Amino acid sequence: MFAGAAEQSEFIASRFDPLGESYLADPYPSMAEARAAAPVFYSERIDHWVVTRYHDIRSVFLNPSLFSAVNANSPLRPPCPAAAKALEDGQFATVRTLANADPPAHTRVRRIVNAAFTPKRVAEMEPFIRETVKRFLKERFRNGRADFVRDLAWELPVLVLFRILGVADTEIGRVKKGSWNRILFIYGHPDNEADQVGAAHGLAEFWRYAQSLVDDRQREQRDDFTSALVHAKDEHGEGLTSQQSATVVLNLLFAGHETTTAILGNSLRRLLGDRQVWNDIVQDASLIPNAVEEVLRLDSSVIAWRRRATEATQLAGVSLPKDANLLLLLGSGNRDPAVFANPDRLDIRRSNAKDHLAFGYGVHLCVGRPLARLQARVVLEELSSVIPSLRLVPDVRYEFPPNVSFRGPLSLPVEWDA
Question: Is the pTM value of this prediction over 0.85?
Answer without folding.
Answer: yes
